[in-house]
Design brief:
The protein contains 24 helices and 16 strands. The chain is an alpha/beta fold. Helix 8 links the parallel strand 4 and strand 5. It is globular and about 90 Å long. Bound molecules: phosphoenolpyruvate and magnesium ion.
Length: 586
């Protein structure tokens, strides 16, 4: 495929180019009946037996892994796969056909497996029909062993490449060798899926929601991935390559200009201070908050501590992990958000059963309150680190003041337990909540007396209020931060917070979008916590406006009826500050 462009959604800025690494969906292994000589028959039989042994080993290893993570039940699925490997009829048929037909073993195995799958697909019994996937799975494993093909996973990314996948989970990203991932392109996801958020945090250009990309791309294709426009070019011609060389030079110039603001404060032209902080997902991202001139951490997502492991992090591990950051950032604040697993972040050791609506399920504070022992382990780790720096605690996904009160009681228990051991912590540690459910917006006045700050989580707030799954590319076009309903909710939360004497920030991705910066300042936000990579651009916008102008712009937006109108108005206002970098070409 030469010079073909695929369009998706821009998920993480930057331009990447290089060879691809296709994960996830596997291409069908096509096999031709290569003739063999009489002398080769015993070699082909040995090859087959060896492939069966290695497949058995592989399945047993997976079975063990799953057993330790989830209990025996799921691991039993693999018993069926193992039985198939021992099926005498299958083995005898392969050997007999090798002798009679004298063609390669790969062809014979694949032909027999296809026959098995066809026979099962014609069965009346639904349960038996569903066994086709078992046959296909085992068949693919044996064929991979016969062909000596390693299954592609992100963990075994050994050379720098652009990752092409149906889906990449936050746990995959956590274990992937970061220096090898030049970029991402996925079929699923949206700008606010955690995969996209993590790509931005790690400064890996990404495009999501590209239909059928894994079918249309070949393992050794060379691509240009443009995370600013949300496109990917497969084997681009010299015209496109030259355009991108020019674009990279322009972007470098722009970056240089932004970096000159590094040591300047995020104040408006008329000296109104907006705190500009960074969001981090992994501890290694802390340095980029500094690099880009952020003043603190407005959202530290702590889920990474729980991903890709069989056990739970201990109080000591929590403490060590937060202590490192506390030491770096003192005296500027670090807001540690308590565990928010669920949705697209899955940790098997937590035994959260599969849910049909995981974003509305047993998530975040709901889960923590149900397992107080696990929750308190984290609270004690945070408290102990608070002795070393300006740390605040934030509870996610609150929908009822009762949850804040219950969490407060557990926090008090945690403090008492530390007191009993004589371990120090910040006695005045501040607690805040994320406002990310419509119920929290409507009851912000009831919640406010229990907390010291609000931080608006637009990723979830928009998902819940506009009824749009934030990770589903099919409905991503409906995900509108400038929806009048969303803007009104933000305004109400800010006003209620201020009336109650507490500051209000935003750590959802809306705060990372330069298009909305002036509007958000004008609505009255005190803090913006953004993807570190976006700090310089947003600082430039803050420094280029006055609070009066911003308020007028916000008032005009509040009087508008639809998001398109609001967005084109905001684009006009932004143009003189951030000239369009990305230009379109065919
Ligand atoms: C949000 O919902 O806006 C948020 C910041 O939290 P998360 O993206 O981790 O759900
Ligand atoms: Mg959220």
């Amino acid at each position: 495929m030469e010079n073909v462009m695929f369009k998706g959604m821009p998920a993480s800025p930057g331009i990447a180019e290089g060879k691809v690494f296709v994960v996830g969906k596997e291409k069908k292994i096509s096999v031709l009946p290569k003739p063999i000589s009489d002398a080769d028959i015993h070699l082909e039989i040995a090859k087959f037996e060896n492939a069966l042994l290695k497949t058995r080993e592989e399945i047993e290893n997976i079975q063990k892994h799953i057993q330790t993570q989830t209990g025996t039940e799921h691991a039993e699925i693999f018993e069926a796969h193992l039985l198939l490997l021992e099926d005498r009829m299958l083995i005898e048929e392969v050997v007999m056909r090798l002798r009679n037909e004298k063609v390669c073993v790969e062809y014979i195995v694949s032909d027999i497996m296809e026959k098995y799958a066809r026979a099962f697909s014609e069965l009346e019994d639904e349960y038996m029909r569903e066994r086709i996937s078992d046959i296909e799975d085992v068949s693919k494993r044996i064929l991979r062993k016969l062909f000596n093909i390693e299954k592609k996973t992100l963990k075994n990314l050994s050379e720098p490449a652009i990752i092409i996948a149906h889906d990449v989970s936050p746990s995959d990203i956590a274990v992937m060798p970061k220096d090898k991932a030049l970029g991402f392109a996925t079929e699923t996801g949206s700008r606010t899926s955690h995969t996209a958020i993590m790509a931005r945090g790690l400064e890996i250009p990404a495009v999501v929601g590209i239909e059928h990309i894994t079918n249309d791309i070949q393992q050794d294709d060379w691509v240009i991935l443009d995370g600013n426009r949300g496109v990917i070019y497969i084997n681009p011609d010299s015209f496109i390559r030259t355009k991108y060389e020019e674009e990279k030079i322009r972007l470098k110039e722009f970056e240089k200009e932004l970096f000159s603001l590094h040591d300047l404060s995020s104040k408006t032209k008329d000296d109104f201070k907006i705190v500009l902080a960074g969001n981090i997902e992994l501890p290694e991202e802390v340095s980029s908050v500094f690099t880009y001139g952020g003043e603190g951490i407005g959202l530290y997502r702590t889920e990474f501590l729980y991903l890709n492991r069989k056990d739970l992090p201990t109080e000591e591990e929590h403490y060590e992990s937060y202590k490192r950051i506390a030491a770096v950032f003192t005296p500027v604040h670090i807001i540690i958000r308590t565990l928010d697993l669920g949705g697209d972040k899955v940790a098997p050791q937590m035994n959260i059963p599969p849910e049909s609506n995981p974003y509305m399920g047993w998530r975040a504070i709901r889960f923590c309150l149900a397992v107080p022992g696990i929750f308190k382990m984290q609270l004690k780790g945070i408290l102990r680190a608070s002795f070393l720096g300006n740390i605040k605690i934030m509870y996610p996904m609150v929908s009822d003041v009762e949850e804040v009160i219950k969490a407060g009681r557990l926090l008090q228990d945690a403090k008492d337990e530390l007191d009993a051991k004589g371990l120090p912590y910040d006695k005045d540690i501040e607690v805040g909540v994320m406002i990310e459910t419509p119920a929290a917006v409507m009851t912000a006045d009831i919640i406010a007396p229990y907390v010291k700050f609000f931080s608006i989580g637009t990723n979830d707030l928009i998902q819940y209020s506009l009824a749009i799954d934030r990770a589903n590319e099919k409905v991503a076009y409906l995900y509108k931060p400038a929806h009048p309903g969303v803007i009104r909710m933000i305004k109400n939360v800010i006003d209620i917070g201020h009336k109650n004497g507490i500051w209000v920030g935003m750590c959802g991705e809306m705060a990372s979008e330069p298009l909305y910066s002036i509007l958000l300042i004008g609505l009255g936000l005190d803090q913006l916590s953004v993807s570190p990579i976006m700090i310089p651009e947003i600082k430039k916008i803050i420094r280029s406006t006055t609070i009066q102008e911003a308020k007028q712009i916000a008032d005009t937006c509040l009087g508008m009826n639809d998001s398109e109108q609001i967005e084109s108005f905001l684009k006009e206002k932004l143009k003189p500050i951030i000239p369009k970098i990305a230009t379109d070409w065919g």
